[in-house]
Model the fold of this input.
Amino acid sequence: MAEIDPTDRRALGILSDTVNEQLGPSDVVAREVRRAYTSGKAIDLDRAGSVFNDLPGWQRNMIGFAANDRARDVVRLRLGSTGRDWRDLEPTARSRTQSETRLSPPPRFLLNRDG
Done:
């Protein structure tokens, strides 16, 4: 049997924890994702992917966002001592920085329309 790549397996562990938190450990999707994570077999990963894709889009998005947040927390814990300021990875800081650089104030003739 083909084995799952170690990096993918760590990511699958994060996804498994998130699915358990969002749907509960007795849910079919949670059980299949956990099985894929614990076995490390590609066939279990395919089955878990099929079951996960059967979820409604809004639920997959919700789980994906939560898993992404959890993965960022794992990275922060492992790389927290590097001295880098990881706040630039925060979605609010990133979107604020992008919007500030893209938007410039409107021209003055648009602001002063009294005359």
In short: The chain has one domain: 6-103. The CA atoms of residues 20 and 87 lie 28 Å apart. Residues 6-103 form one domain. The helical segments are 6-23, 28-39, 42-53, 57-79, 91-102, 108-111.
